[in-house]
UniProtKB/TrEMBL annotation:
Cross-referenced Pfam families: Allantoicase
Reactions accelerated catalytically: allantoate + H2O = (S)-ureidoglycolate + urea
EC number in record: 3.5.3.4
Pathway of action: Nitrogen metabolism; (S)-allantoin degradation; (S)-ureidoglycolate from allantoate (aminidohydrolase route): step 1/1
Keywords: Hydrolase, Purine metabolism
Residues covered by the Allantoicase domain: 32-180, 201-344
Broad EC category: hydrolase
Top-rank taxon: Bacteria
Matches recorded under InterPro entries: Allantoicase, Allantoicase_dom, Galactose-bd-like_sf
Protein name: Probable allantoicase
Hydrolase keyword on record: yes
PANTHER family, A to Z: ALLANTOICASE, INACTIVE ALLANTOICASE-RELATED
Gene source species: Zoogloea oryzae
Presence of the UniProt keyword DNA repair in the record: no
Amino acid sequence: MASLPGTPVFAPPAELPEWAARAVNLANPRLGARALGASDDFFAEVGRMLNPDPAAFVPGKYDTNGKWMDGWESRRKRVAGHDWALVKLGVKGVIHGFDVDTSHFTGNYPPAVSIEATVSASDDVATLQAAEWTEILPATPLGPNSHHLLECGSSDAWTHLRVNIYPDGGIARLRVYGRPVSALESLAGDALVDLVAMENGGRAVSWNDASFGSSVAALLLPGRGINMGDGWETRRRREPGNDWCVLELGAPGTVEKIEVDTAFFKGNFPDRCSIQAACVSGGTDRSITTQSMFWQTLLPEQKLSMDAVHCFAEEIVQLGTITHVRFNIFPDGGVSRLRLWGRPAR
């Protein structure tokens, strides 16, 4: 009788540098990122490389092509050349760097990787292969079973990547850390849009705590949270005060409706929340954070409840055009999503 697969072993998280810790994973499928194709993915389907969960190794697990691996893995190349994969980013963005993770790939990792980028309105593989590509990460050595945090020197915004491995092998995970570029200026019509949504260029600037859950950036992801780990959650506060985060809108605009979603947070939702806002010109993230303590009130303190979407409209103070908000929760707890519905300034 064949033995059953063993208990999965999960890869440890990467120790992220500052340029990655405060960035967004533009290759997150939750944002709409997907693998479009690869020269070869015989051993492990290329789409697994973008899985937001940690890479797993399952002892004793095999499929019809061999050992099951959690990532993208091509067969052993017996001809000249190298393998590649095409990835569509979830949102157009400026890339700060990458985590090329070879966790659990020991004798089958690629010795080197390079990454190219392009801007395209098409996801067709043949069209993309014929596109003009720019190298944003030169050929870089890789090692076995480890995270490789690699900075990107490009300051342009991109929509698609071509990941080249030399000559073949496997990558467990690819994280593309960067900043979404706003598409709000190109939107036509007067329909309300979520000004702080990540896909519209919204981003987390700073926060005082994010001990549990995903990160503050999860507040800005599309859709409702999938579980209690998919949101912003702070530790239990044992001293006076409250927790907060500062968020930048994708474009300056006026807010007409606010949604605070505490999905899955039941014994740990905040008692109350409030929002301050300002129209900021210039400054750094650090100076903006300092200023935020004195911003005007956009939403006065409101009572929250467990596992619910809270909608506010009449309670909103009309401040005109704003660019940033400070989201306060009292005293601590977890929030799944924050939506700031409004109209971009024209």
